[in-house]
Amino acid sequence: MLNQVESPRKVENAVYNTIVPAGTGWMRELLPGQVLRIVDLEGNQAVDTLFFDSENPEDHYSAVATITAQKNIYLTTGSILRSESGKELLKIVADTCGRHDTLGGACSAQSNTVRYSHDTLFMHNCRDTFMLLLAQHGGNYTKRDLAPNVNFFMNVPVTPEGNLEFADGISGSGRYVELLALRRTMVLISNCPQLNNPCNAYNPTPIQLLIWNK
């Protein structure tokens, strides 16, 4: 069953509101108590996302620590996203999609050629977007800081044999997920450009990002 919970927050009260076009990225710090809403504007858009402890960038989001602590491979309302050291970075406080993937990882030039065909090597991918944003941001972030990420709105069922399937999305137009920052957290997003599997309904679309203060 999907755990869908509406938010009490009003768009007009947000202190930040932007549109991230399909295939592009976004990087920004959240302060403790701030809430980030990610909106799937047109439906079935995969939003690849990484999180870092701002005070210790090497301590990034950990799928293993998060899954182990909550004993569930999917994320939804109530899920706490943890770092490699086990720190609580963020908590999902509202979710109208109901389930998000934390196993499928981000597409890259290399994975595209393995999954699909060699002629996809030059296609835009999330790993390249991540690395571009890290390079533009500067500071202590490098490609070594990339790790298995969250795929918001993406549907990746696990088969009885333990395999992953990239299936049709379960999101829809206007659905969103909200994350409460529990500590200073850097957020890195690639609004996935993937055209080779149904994670984006073969049609990458823009997302909306909003932030509220405490």
Largest sheet: 6 strands, antiparallel
Cα gyration radius (Å): 16 Å
Number of helices: 3
Oligomer state of the chains in this structure: single chain
Helical content stands at 10-25%
Q: Span between N and C termini?
A: 31 Å
Structural class by helix and strand composition: alpha+beta
Number of domains: 1
**Spatial strand arrangement across the major sheet:** 1-13-3-11-8-7
User: Into which percentage range does the β-strand content fall?
Assistant: 25-35%
InterPro entries: DUF1989, UAAP2
Organism: Anoxybacillus suryakundensis
Pfam families: DUF1989
Domain DUF1989: 19-182
Describe this structure in words.
The chain has helices spanning 63-70, 109-115, 126-137, and strands at residues 16-20, 25-30, 35-40, 47-53, 56-60, 74-75, 80-82, 88-95, 100-101, 150-152, 175-181, 185-191, 207-212. A hairpin with a 5-residue loop joins β7 (80-82) and β8. The longest helix is centred in the middle third of the chain and has 12 residues, at 126-137. The chain has a six-stranded antiparallel β-sheet. 13% of the residues lie in helices and 31% in strands. The two termini are 31 Å apart. It has one domain (11-171, 184-212). The relative contact order is 0.34. The radius of gyration is 16 Å and the shape is globular. The model has no long low-confidence stretch (mean pLDDT 87). The protein contains three helices and 13 strands, in the order βββββαββββααββββ. It is α+β, with helices and mostly antiparallel strands and 214 residues long. This is Urea carboxylase-associated protein 1. It comes from Anoxybacillus suryakundensis.
